[in-house]
Amino acid sequence: MRQSILSKNDRLAEQNRGFFRARGLSVLNVLSSPGSGKTTFLRETVKGLGSKLKAGIIVGDLATDNDAERLRASGAPVVQITTGTMCHLEAEMIGRALKQLTLEGLQLILIENVGNLVCPAAYDLGEDLRVVLFSVTEGEDKPLKYPPIFQVADVVVISKMDLAQACEFDRQMALANIKRAAPKARVFETSAKTGLGMDSWREYLAEHQQRKSARDPLEA
Amino acid sequence: MRQSILSKNDRLAEQNRGFFRARGLSVLNVLSSPGSGKTTFLRETVKGLGSKLKAGIIVGDLATDNDAERLRASGAPVVQITTGTMCHLEAEMIGRALKQLTLEGLQLILIENVGNLVCPAAYDLGEDLRVVLFSVTEGEDKPLKYPPIFQVADVVVISKMDLAQACEFDRQMALANIKRAAPKARVFETSAKTGLGMDSWREYLAEHQQRKSARDPLEA
To answer: ipTM of this predicted complex?
Structure first.
């Protein structure tokens, strides 16, 4: 049954991928533990992008629309998906959420997955980039202890660097562990609170979108 | 299929429960996000208990035996379960691990579940008490955003209180949210680093074990 759920999900993920390509949208699937700072990171990402790259946000949670409320402070359109007891987002939920999002003028969709460092790894949503966050408070060995999700990461973001000293965070060890678990991933060291690393991250997003448009231009 | 996995798990959990009763063992299932500080909390719990209450530990991770290594520093016997891609522990894994644990002289078994604030809630392991940790760095609204796991908590432990100020943790809001999600749970505010709250927690464990022995005495 798990197999057939996955293959149904894979088909719907490809539909989403085609839909995104037709609209010239770059799409990120953002994954992490609960409490790693996804929401604040995405809010500050969008704020700083301003009109350079217009983003919409889809956010998944078991319950509450607290995150959607926080994300709306960025000025971006936000759709909340409430999953009940489901531990991950699926491609079908994204397909439905797209109908509620005003896509006009958007170049970027940020999907904030349910806080879970295990299960969402198995579900393609049709995204271009999988972004895995972990915060300095979680410990340097997370990439080694949760290999399935780090193995599928295109980007690894270390968040809450402002707390690094208070947590006695060992940066070199963390970077070495990311290198082992996700050798090809781009790494960003950030603090959404102080702004550290956020400009490089936004530049990376803008370049990704440019490369994508050049490779796959929309009709005039 | 999920239904039948769960009912198989429930049967094996009852077997574990009977086994624990026959040996006079108190058993805790300790649940949290990755990086909430379960391992350090359990290590310090056991260190402080000394010979008052002898504990054994079973620890689940997708990969590595880093946590087992850390836990051995407590002096307690430790069995590591490596789950591969499985996002939670099941009763059957505990049954197998019990065969590797020297039970002689133990009164307490601490089970550190896979770091996941969603899926482990659905799997009874035969424990007496479900203990849910969340750290001050994760944000005050975690109990509202992950209701299934908080609803089954007998105890909620707030960890890493030493970082409360650095995170601008709102203690009153956190306590109010726990009250809403888990109205009957005992709450402990702790720092395994400074020792804050650890003595009250250990006293609670000792009292729980005494109540259990009085209710269900072993044959002489």
So the answer is: 0.92
